[in-house]
Amino acid sequence: MAPLRGPKAGMEEPEPEPEPGAGSSPRRFTWEEIGLRTGRGHPPQERWLVIDRQVYDISQFYRRHPGGARVISSYAGQDATDPFEAFHIDKGLVRKYMSSLRIGELALDQPSFEPTKNKLLVEDFRELHTTVERMGLLNPNHLFFFLLLLHILMLDVAGWFVLWYFGTSLVPFLISTVLLTISQSQAGFLQHDLGHLSVFSSTKWNHLVHEFVMSHLKGLSAQWWSLHHSQHHAKPNCFHKDPDIAMHPSLFALGKILSVELGMKKKKFMPYNHQHKYFFITMPLLVVPVFQLYSLYFIFQRKLWRELAWTLTYFIRFFLFFEPLLGVTGVLGFLLLLNVLESILFTWISQLNHIPMHIDYDSNMDWFSTQLQATCNVDQSLFNDWLTGHLNFQIEHHLFPRMPRHNYWKAAPLVKSLCAKHGMEYQSKPLLTGFADILRSLKDSGELWLDAYLHG
After folding, report:
1. CA 367 – CA 82 distance, rounded (Å)
2. What pLDDT digit, counting tens, does each position of 286-331 carry?
3. Which pTM does this prediction carry?
4. Residue 309 near residue 238 (C-beta atoms within 8 A)
5. Fewer beta carbons below 10 Å: N end or C end of the chain?
6. Comparing C-alpha atoms, which of 96, 60, 85 is closest to residue 2?
7. Residue 361 CB: number of other CB atoms within 10 A?
8. What DSSP assignment string belongs to 116-133?
């Protein structure tokens, strides 16, 4: 249910057709019937989902879904109304293309979402979503994002200028490295905004500028990032559905439940009881360099020639700027150094909101509960807002992924109020505490694994 990327994604869209059964009574289904259509089993079963009480058969379509097959499949057999509302800008256009997939609707005696979900909470969140729209909190401030882009470009130019003007001795080199690392980090947050369609009201403009920022300023594939990141938002911290926790169990044992399960099965791919120690020399150092390599593979695999052209301009520009100052070997080493430093910054910032939170298999909870149990915030300050690209408001971002970041603080009191009403914890912590909680949670889950492994 990720944002439509249209022909740019290299995926077909179904032709709009008249709704089946037009002029006759629609077929009616129960939640029990829908819950069986998850696509699991051998041979693969049908995949159905529900949006606004309408039942859609995505069995043939899911592989052509412009937002990615895994995103839409993660809601097979479930109600997908809230993620549909969260991810799409032009819902009328999307519904037009969905009409050919519609096979009926829920039976009259069936609730609008699974009976296992908290009816009052779902209704309250949908009312909150309506309030957020009515307040204009989904509307972007273009000046805000222009100034963000401007400050990124200024940091980029300043990083080169320091080396060009002052030379390549240690102090200018260190200053340039800091400026360029921050520039890359901030560009990463801006491309994140564009990928979530939160900078422009037009999907097309978000995609075009996303390519410029992601591919030209960072040398990565915008489309790869969107497909990957949308899966994370659809089912955060849900094993087998969220790619951001795919390092379980190959590298880390994550979450209490999954770690105990791993130990009970006597599986040991790594010394997990020491994972809070080897975390420093694994994930933070490798994430962005691995992204860089996989992104190039993805571009060639999908034949994304426009993204390839933008990406080549990133590397050409970098070599033209820095090869005269550092030489060929020096510029290659400098590029790797910047990748590693950005990787360290990115990993610590991105993981403090999720690794310490609940991690388990998908239990088909309502949208509000799913996002809240998998995310936490970092206390607001001007520095924290800037350093994290406003992802210190991770809860608000996950609940409203299309919301422009400059409005998170306005939505936060409304979200806190809903949490208080339903007795749910709204977690917010100091930045350094968030960093420490990554290591604490890895240590705890590693010890749980070891105990289950030895005595389970």
Report:
1. 6
2. 888 899 999 999 999 999 999 999 999 999 999 999 999 999 999 9
3. 0.91
4. no
5. C
6. 85
7. 14
8. TS-HHHHHHHHHHHHHHH
